Amino acid sequence: MSTQLKDITYRHVAIMLSSALPIEGEEFRERVEANLEAIKALPAEQKTALKMAYIFSRKVPSQERKDFFQDIALALFKAHARDDKLAYAIARCDWRDWWKKYKIRQHYSLDSVIEDEDGNPATLGELIIGEAEFELKMDGKLDAERIWNKLPDNIKPIIRSRLIGQALTGAQRVALHRWIGTSGYQLLLASV
Length: 192
Prior knowledge:
- The chain is mostly helical.
- Helices cover 72% and strands 3% of the residues.
- The protein has three domains: 2-107, no CATH class; 109-149; 151-192, no CATH class.
């Protein structure tokens, strides 16, 4: 651990952050210096978090580095780890967990052909999409039922009329607007 920490400087982190921008030459050098100054101005625990995130983001595939850097940095910011050793341990555990999930993900391609519940061949991607659509429909149905059950009995026929496109009478409009103004917030609470 100590060799890696000594070898990594805040300049490495500043360069990595600047490399995400579409700039080159002198503008890139200026951005590196600006990022370096901003990093140096951070509290010690945040500087440590950035350094650990940099170290461990270098240990993942290049296409995953930016996301992983952000995930580790955020986890360390939330942990408020003041000690380098503790921050390193937290980052290392998150890195190991990430690799476990990544290796599992590598075994399952969305193009892998498997059987659906009827025994027909289907790609894993198709099944996931179908499952997600079904889940969204079910969640929507449950939310709608929960909201409908929260409506008072005198408002339900007005809502039903509006849903089927019927014009409301003046009294119905007044009743609906009065209920919305006084108790409509209950609908927000019902969907939680």
